[in-house]
Structures are given as structure tokens and as C-alpha cells.
Write a structure and sequence with these properties.
Distance between the termini: 20 Å
Largest sheet: 6 strands, antiparallel
Number of domains: 3
CATH class of the largest domain: Mainly Beta
CATH architecture of the largest domain: Sandwich
Helix content: 40-55%
CATH topology of the largest domain: Jelly Rolls
CATH superfamily of the largest domain: Jelly Rolls
């Protein structure tokens, strides 16, 4: 992981290398950290120090050291310090498809309130949030994700039976979107790829993956933007290569998704931080 080298800087973010659909960060902030935003992944983490305050589902939540945070895909939230001392935390961003590989088409688990003291969730997240921040091996991560999926389902009381909908069609749509994320995709193309009518498919996709097909497509494009920016591309060229109409179009979606502008995100991810 990379960290801002200057101790005097109060805000910093360390980003681990993504491993098979899972991103990990550790961060420290004083004051306002992120504006309201949402993404198509689960955000699951642990507060390490201070009071981590955020708006979530029409309420204000405070996470204390040792608490587990579980933010559902596509739920808007922000982030800020609850006291003048600031806060520090670790967070995982997990694609719902990885949990569905374990759940096999059951409804995605939903943890009410966004903050939990459930010991099952604390234990299941520990393996994915190691104290020494070592990179996880693929098999190690897969086993830890399976434990986490079962813990989430148990804590949420997720029914064992599948909800109504066509899981296989939703999965075919996800695969198609992933393969064509840099191109314009229409509902007619998704219908042809899945054999499911557009309205039923949109419903199924949200049930099984927690977001809409277009949001999923946008997130894959933003992932590509982040990789290109870290590799040295300009904002304009990264936006075009990822499938956005232009830099402005990309920046609007980036801010809505990450609560940061691309430039500010790149400073953190590059280990520069801010004063």
C-alpha cells in the first residue's frame, strides 16, 4: 500500500492493489471526508479510531472503534469526523457478484442501519482487513468472501429461498456489460443477450446485484478510468478510453460515485494526500 510520506498531513488514504473484484483502503480524515455519493459495491469496514459519522438512509450514523460498517450497494452516504480528533478506518469495496457466487441467487443481504456490533460480521471481516495490510492471495480471499457472505446472510436474516426473478438472465446481462463496458449498450442489446424483456431484466438485475444495469456499466467504466489515471493518462484521454462522452461527463459520474473529484482522488491514491 502507498501512504502520504509527510506526517504533518492530517488526511491520507492508502490503497491496496485490487484483487479479483475487491478493493481495500485505509484512511484517516479530520473534518469532512466525502460528499454524498453511492456506488454499486458493498462498502464494508471497521472504524479503528475516533468517531466516524455519515449520513445513510435518511439518518445520521456514528461508528465507533471496533464497529463494523455495512453499506448496501446504491445507497447514498457521505463521510466526516464526529469529533475534532478525526477518525481512521479500513474499508472493503466488494462487488455483489462475488457474494452471489456464494449465495447462488438468494436476495442480497441487507443490514439495517449501516453499523453493526454483530460478532459474526466482525470475525468474518477480520480476514479481509488484515492489520499488516498484506496483499491477499486469491484462494485466501475467496475463502474469506465465502465466510463473509454467510455471515451477512445470517446477520440480515436473508431467506434461504431465491426471490422471484431470473438469476441466470441477470448474470448473463452482467457478463455482457462487463465485456462491452467501453461501448454504448442499449436495452435492446441486453434483451438479445439474455432472452429476457428489458423491464423484467432491469428488475432482476437490481434484485440480484443491488443496482441497475446502467449503474453497473458506469462503475466498470470508472474502474477503467482509475486504472488509466494511475498509469499516467490525462483526465480527458482516460474518459474517452473508458467509454464516456467526454471529461465533463466522466467527472460528474466520478463525483457522484466516490464523493471526490478525479483530481483529488488521484492525489490520495498516489500518496500525495492533502493539507
Amino acid at each position: 500500500m502507498k501512504r502520504a510520506p509527510t506526517p504533518a498531513r492530517s488526511d491520507w488514504v492508502k490503497c491496496a492493489e485490487p484483487v479479483q473484484g475487491v478493493e481495500r483502503i485505509e484512511a484517516s480524515f479530520k473534518g469532512k471526508a466525502y460528499a454524498m455519493h453511492r456506488h454499486d459495491t458493498y462498502a464494508i469496514g471497521r472504524t479503528l479510531a475516533g468517531v466516524q459519522r455519515f449520513s445513510y438512509r435518511r439518518g445520521q450514523r456514528d461508528s465507533l472503534p471496533g464497529n463494523t460498517m455495512i453499506l448496501h450497494p446504491d445507497e447514498a452516504h457521505d463521510g466526516q469526523a464526529g469529533t475534532d480528533a478525526g477518525f481512521r478506518y479500513r474499508m472493503l469495496y466488494i462487488e455483489p457478484a462475488l457474494l452471489q457466487d456464494v449465495l447462488g441467487g438468494r436476495a442480497l443481504p441487507f443490514i439495517e442501519g449501516g453499523v453493526s456490533t454483530d460478532s459474526r460480521l466482525a470475525a468474518a471481516t477480520s480476514a479481509l482487513l488484515p492489520h499488516d495490510c498484506h496483499p491477499l492471495e486469491a484462494l485466501e480471499q475467496s475463502e474469506a468472501l465465502a465466510e463473509l457472505a454467510h455471515a451477512l446472510a445470517a446477520a440480515a436474516g436473508t431467506p434461504a429461498q431465491r426471490p422471484k426473478g431470473d438469476f441466470l438472465a441477470a448474470r448473463r446481462a452482467r457478463d455482457y456489460l462487463q465485456a462491452h463496458c467501453t461501448h454504448a449498450v442499449t436495452l435492446a442489446q441486453l434483451e438479445a443477450a439474455t432472452g429476457r424483456d428489458r423491464w423484467s431484466l432491469s428488475h432482476d438485475f437490481r434484485v440480484f446485484y443491488g443496482t441497475s444495469p446502467y449503474r453497473y456499466l458506469t462503475m466498470r467504466r470508472l474502474e477503467r478510468v482509475r486504472r488509466l489515471l494511475l498509469a499516467g493518462s490525462t483526465l480527458a484521454s482516460a474518459a474517452m478510453a473508458a467509454g464516456f462522452a467526454d471529461q465533463s461527463h466522466m467527472t460528474r459520474h466520478f463525483l457522484k460515485t466516490h464523493g471526490l473529484t478525479p483530481g483529488r482522488w488521484l492525489r490520495y491514491a498516489s500518496g500525495i494526500g492533502q493539507d
